[in-house]
Each structure stands twice: as C-alpha cells, then as structure tokens.
Queue: 2 jobs
Job 1
Amino acid sequence: MTAASIYNRMIMPTSYGNPEAEYWRLINGVSQWDVGVERQVQLKGPDAGRLAQILSPRDLSTCQAGQGKYVPLCNHRGTIINDPILLKLADDLYWFSIADSDIWFWAGAIAAERGLDVEVSEPDVSPMALQGPKAEDVVAHVLGDWVRGLKYFWFRETEIEGIPVAVQRSGWSKQGGFEIYLKDGTRGTALWNIFKEAGRPWDIGPGAPATAERTESGLVSIGGDTDEATNPFEVRLGRYVDLDVSDDVVGIQALRRIKAEGIRRHQLGLVLEGEVPAPLGFRREEIIRNGQRIGMMTNCVWSPRMRANIGYALIEASVPTGETVQVLRDHGPVAAKLVDLPFL
Ligand code: THG
C-alpha cells in the first residue's frame, strides 16, 4: 500500500503504487480491493425489519432474504446522511453496509427512541471486493459456477476453505464484480491470499475504489459529493426514495415536501477544458456563470478514457446541461461544459 485515506475511522488503502495501471486493470481485468472500512451495522431481533424500514425512505416490503438493496438514509430534514447497501440475511437479521458516517449510533438511538425490540451492533464483518470484467471468472474459479447466477446485490452465505463469508454481486464500480464479506477478522490475510493466488491466470492485482472510474460511471460518494443540506433528489438518488412508505420513516415528511416544492439544486457532470491531468480535487470549488455563483464543483479527477478532467457540479437546478461555466481553481478560472451523468 502506498496511499491511504480515512473512512469510518479506519485506514482504507487507496493505491499500491501505480494508480494508472490500477485503473486500467479495473477497466480491462480484475482488481482486488480491501474495503473492510465498509462496516456493517447489524439489526437483529423481532423488530429488525421495522427498524430497517424506519431508517430507509426506500420501500423494503418486497426485499427477500438473500437480497440486497441500495438505500439512501436521511435525517429528519431529508438530508442524506449515508447510502448503504442493505443486506437482508433473515427476517430478523439485516446489515447496513455503510459509507463513511456513524450509522451505528444513529440506528441505536432511533431504535431506542421508538421502543423497538432490536439489537444494533457492529459485527466482525469486513468486505473485500473483486471488480472488473474478469472478476466473475475468478470468483467462479474459487466458489463454483453458481456465483454466475447471482443477481445484482443478491448474496449467499458460504465458506471458503473453512472461512465464513457472504458472497454478493456488488461493488463500488460499474465494471461488474463481487464482494466477499469476511465474517472472521482473524482470517483476512488467508482470504486475501486465496483470491490473489486463484486470480493469477487473470492477472489479478491489488487496487482500490477508483475515483476516476466511479466519477465516469456517475456513482455518488456521500460526504464528498454531498454537503450538510443535500437531499437524495439533488444527487440523482430520487429513484431510491418511495414517497408512500409509512409516515414513521425518518425524513419522509421532509422528502415529500421537498419533492412537492421542487429541488433547488441538481448534480451534473463537468468536462473541464485542457488535456493536462489535474491533481485530484476533493475540495469544493466555486462555479460561476455569467459572473454569478451558481454552485460548486464537488470533485475533480483525470479520466483516462475521456482524456479530460471531469467532475461533478452541484448547482442551481435552473442551469441545464450544454452550458459552459467557469470553475474557480487554485491557478485561476477554467472553462467547463455541463453534461449529463453518467459520463460513460
Ligand atoms: N459495497 C458495500 N458497502 C458499501 C459500498 C459498496 N458501503 C458504502 C458505499 N459502497 C455505498 N455506496 C454505494 C453507492 C452506489 C452503489 C453501491 C454502493 C451502486 N449503485 C449502482 C448505481 O448507482 O448504478 C446500482 C444501484 C441500484 O440500481 O440499485 O452499486 O460498494 N458492501
């Protein structure tokens, strides 16, 4: 590991020395990621399903055991606070596989305030991802051809050489792949090495969630692309909100109001002028149109496939795609074109 960041108070490897090669391996081959920082918040007990629904403005009534769903979590103002994958393991057992914020505290507090019969915990579960067009062959080689039949976000619990895992078709890229949820933290190195060895014929290599790929693909990073007031509709997550869930769902009243009033901001893509890779931008940078501030660029990265610096704009909803704007970068204003997401 040569670079890392902090996620859920833990160290997340972000590179193994050659970001460009790691990107192309994800696009063309298979990449192995230590994403153990995607912590699980477990709901266990008779009211686990009720609590899951109270926390999620997405209708979960049809979710079956063995199925996962992408669910935005909102606070009482309709502000998005996390965007986990929810795994339903059994009628009385759920995991929220969380992004970077403290959902354990949140879920425990809501459960207690509502008087629910459910235990909220952070179990010993750590995901590892295999991503890329060749990931399926590697995972099938280790586990058998049944994995090829897994539908998106569906999973199965099993063992790999005695190591307890859950295997899901998922992962934070649009290149396809699986996540192996390790259920025994003492076996991490063993699990890693099994896939490292099994993947040799496909030239597997270590990597990490790739900022360039996820941006090209239009995936949202909560906390980076969103701020203290962002609701799901502003960042293209409205299709994961069901306004007719029951009134006790946290934030649903606010979300109904926001939907009725119409959103003030929306998220579009930015293609910046110039063909020189700019350093990764995580700071928010002002966006100007006709001398007026209209919002901010929330991330910026060089896209090897588009051969341009690209980013996301969170801007006034009245400003459409096709417009040219100025981004106020450190070295001066840069022209950029607003486009629809995803880029690719
Ligand atoms: N895997 C696991 N846990 C996670 C992530 C993950 N927790 C944090 C973070 N990633 C959660 N965020 C996302 C965001 C998007 C997707 C998955 C997790 C995703 N979205 C698809 C899309 O937007 O096109 C499909 C969503 C759908 O249509 O249902 O895959 O990666 N374990």
Note: Residues 38, 70, 83-85, 97-99, 127, 170-172, 179, 219-220 surround (6S)-5,6,7,8-tetrahydrofolate (CB under 6 Å).
Job 2
Amino acid sequence: MKGRFVTPGKTFEAVDPRTGEVITRVAEGDTEDIDLAVKAARHAFDHGPWPRLSGFERGRIMMKLADLIEENIEEIAALDTINGGKLFAHGQVLDVPGAARTLRYFAGAADKIHGTVLKLSKGLQGYTLREPIGVVGHIIPWNFPTILFFTKVAPALAAGCTMVVKPAEQTPLSALYYAHLAKLAGMPDGVINVVNGFGETAGAAISAHMDIDKVSFTGSTEVGRKIMAAAAASNLKPVSLELGGKSPLLIFDDADINEAVNIVFGGMFFNKGEICVASSRVYVQEGIYEKFENKLVEKAKSWVVGDPFDPRVHQGPQVDKKQFEKILSYIEHGKREGATLLTGGKRVGQKGYYIEPTIFADVKDDMIIAKEEIFGPVMSLMKFKTMEEAIKRANNTTYGLAAGIITKDLNVANTVSRSIRAGIIWINCYTALDVDCPFGGYKMSGFGRDCGLEALNQYHQIKSVVTPIRDSPWH
Ligand code: ADP
C-alpha cells in the first residue's frame, strides 16, 4: 500500500464554488482508510529511514519538495482557485510561494535541533534529547488549503515525524498533488499519507486513533472541542488547536484615515473574509468616526467581486453553499437585531457563491454579528471614546486570536498591545504574517503555536538522560 495512490470504494464530489458545478469525484477515506494510513506512518516511523536520517538529509528532501512546488505554481494555484474560490493571483504570489518558503524555513531548522546539557545534583550529570513525537495526525481546514498544509506538515517533517494528513472535504485537490510531489522529491514511503474524507468520519478516526501520537488541528472552535474530547477519551494524545476568532481592530483619532481604511478593508475582506484572523470587529474613535465611515463605504464601491481568475477581481466566491447560506443568514440576523446595513448584504449574480462586502454600523457588543465568528465578508463597525473603553470592549470576547491597532502614538500602541489578550497584535498593519512569526490563540482560539521555531516544539518529545559521575570530587 505504501508509496502509491489507492482507491477506496467510496467517492465524493469536489465542487467549483464559482458555479456550484462538480469538478470531479475524489476518493473518500473512512475509518479503515485512516487505519491503513496510520499503519503505513507507524511502520515508517518505527522502522523507516525518515526519523533516523540526519536533519541535514531530511532538510535536503524538504528543499527539493519546495523546488517542485515552485516549479508548479500555476497548477497548484489553479487547483485552489477552482476548488476553493481563492484569488488565482494571490495563489501565485502568496499561498504557493508561501508554502515553499515554509518548507525551506523548517528544512533549515532540521539540522539545528539540540537538547541541553544538565548539571544535576551530586554525582550526576545529564542531557536532554529532542526526539520526534511519532505519528502525527494533521486536520486541515479549507480556507488556506496550501499554506496550512505546509504550516502543519513542514515542522513535523523537520522534527522527524511521520504523518497522516486529512484535508478539508471542501478542498481535497491540491493536497493530492502534494502527495505526488513529495514522492518525486524523494520522500520515503509512509512519511506523508494524505487521506481525503469527511470530518465526522475520517477526521474523527484520526483524533480517536490509539496509534497517533499527536493531533494538530486548524478549524472551528466547535470541532476543536470534539477533537480534544476524542484525544482525551482515547490515548491522551496531545493536541494543538488553532481555532476561531472575532478579532478587534482599534482605530484611534490620530490615524491617517485613508491608510486606516485600506488596512481595515484588507483585514476584513482578504480571502473573502474566510480567514480566522479577520478584523470583524472594527472600533473607531469618535473624533474620526463619521469621516472614516464615509470613506469605508466609498471604498466598498471600488471592491470588485467576481471570478477569482480575473486579475481585476478582489473577492471570489465563498467556499461552498453551506458557508454561503450561513453568511447570508448572519446578515439577516444583523438586520433583525437593529444594526444599520451601510453597504452590501446581498449575493452577487445568480450563479455560484458570491456575496457583496457587507458593513454594518450601529452594532452593539452583544449582538450576534459582533459576537460570533461569521467567516465571511461581514464587518461590524463600532464607535469608542477612550483607550480604556476600547481595550475593555476588544477583550469582551471568548476568542483571542488577533487584534490590530492603528495610531501614531507609540504609548497607546504599546499599552494596547500589552492589554489585549490575543496571540498576535498588529500595529499599523493587519494580516502581516511570516513563517518566522509564532501564530496561535489565547482563550477559546486554541493553544499551541504554528510557525516560527515554536512550531517545532509541538512535534518533539523531550527525553532526559541521566548518568552518574563516579569518583568525582566535584559535587
Ligand atoms: P468549518 O466549520 O470552518 O468548515 P471545521 O472546523 O468544520 O471548519 O473543519 C476543519 C477540518 O476539521 C476539516 O478538515 C473537517 O473535515 C475536520 N472536521 C470536522 N469535524 C470533525 C470531527 N468531528 N473530528 C475531526 N475532524 C473534523
């Protein structure tokens, strides 16, 4: 079975969100297929070369995979566009090069994994070994099928782990291509096992599996909770969870309004609002509120929604019908709760899952649209008076993934950054991310950090080795 594509009996549809039409059918993995994949990964971990190679050799194969990805940028970007509705232009310059960069970053770290030397008490000395944690289960969401695949896979590979990867059922295509490219790059059989399938079946089989040593998940808070429960009820495997958000962006009176409007727009509507850090709660200080609101509405008029292959388009279709309907129902909630619809609020066209960039004003902190993660192009605009009030309201959420501050006052920027309980704070920018930047949540946005060298730690066990020093006069 190892090292080749197999065809389980069942298949499911991969759909093009531009039209709602079926692109192709994909093999659907279920519990037994996850089991086979885990067996392959287990064998590759317990007996195969990958964990036993030098870090340098692992890094070399990862570098080769990065090269192959770069050689196929157009094809990969096109897969995520036809299947995920993502902008083709972004795929070409952000997602796919970002995946190659992530592989290279962790490839470079693979031969720099060290333990520490311990000077223990009386007559003992010791050291720590950083060992790969074992077989990892990665459960990937659909909003960044390429970047998030490698955000999870690359540090686990560098650490020497083997793995089973389950892409989201909405976006199964590009991951199959990565399995193919990994083989071409010389990745030993059984190291990366991609199984497409649904969350309640294939995903649940991963989190409950007795022979998976760790699960790394990105997705909704609700599913994160199920994964943690399944891990607790099976072999107590550690989990890392990167979950939802309802991130605040605070704009102070001294901000450059045009610049702020651009940052806010990008923060909210980038990737059609299907991004866990979306700046969905925008708090504007009262002195500039009116001007800001007018400019924001003006900006919405120049925002083009349409075919994600068209280079003039800013926003493609939502990923699928379910998501599309969920977003439209949140918009109805907003109207019913008494928020003022400033712009947007409707679907675009009659075909596919396109939605206008939507902005609500007069939003109260306790309205559903201000509290729940919508995961679509819907912004809540609110007014504040003082910094203290803004901090309090920004923190008034169960989430803690990200926050933004726009001000020229360094003191305000520093105070607010330290006061907001979130995993990343952006000052005078938003969604500025790099593989070197640890990324993860506080509160119900999860725990564990993807990216940066912090991510490597998630895939290691620390072993202490202790030995006596006989006849030493030094105690
Ligand atoms: P969204 O709600 O944004 O669609 P999810 O959190 O449901 O995102 O999905 C993210 C990933 O989690 C997908 O790969 C999905 O198949 C998987 N998933 C969904 N439900 C479960 C579950 N019960 N156990 C494990 N994985 C799941």
Note: The mean pLDDT is 97.
